[in-house]
Amino acid sequence: MIKVCALSSLDDRKPFAASVDDVDVVLVRDGERVHALADLCSHAAVSLSEGDVSRKGIECWLHGSCFDLETGKPSSPPATEPVDVYAVDIRDGDVFVDVTVTTN
To answer: Side-chain half-sphere of 54: how many Cα atoms within 13 Å?
Structure first.
């Protein structure tokens, strides 16, 4: 696990781009939980961190595909393939991510 940032630096339901061991990751805080997904839309290969977060997940700004924060699965077209979801741990107010462990 690699420390990425302080939990307090994440705004609720606002994408946050980070690089973890040369892997581009988007973090999304949802209350006291944090989700980490690959920061690359599986349909158009653009950064998900530039999109918006809704009740359905994180939405790609280019074509509107939405990815579930828990599973990485797309809930709307045109994407049909999921994005990777990574293990997250919050310790002593800091967010740690392990890009070697996918949870989907």
So the answer is: 12
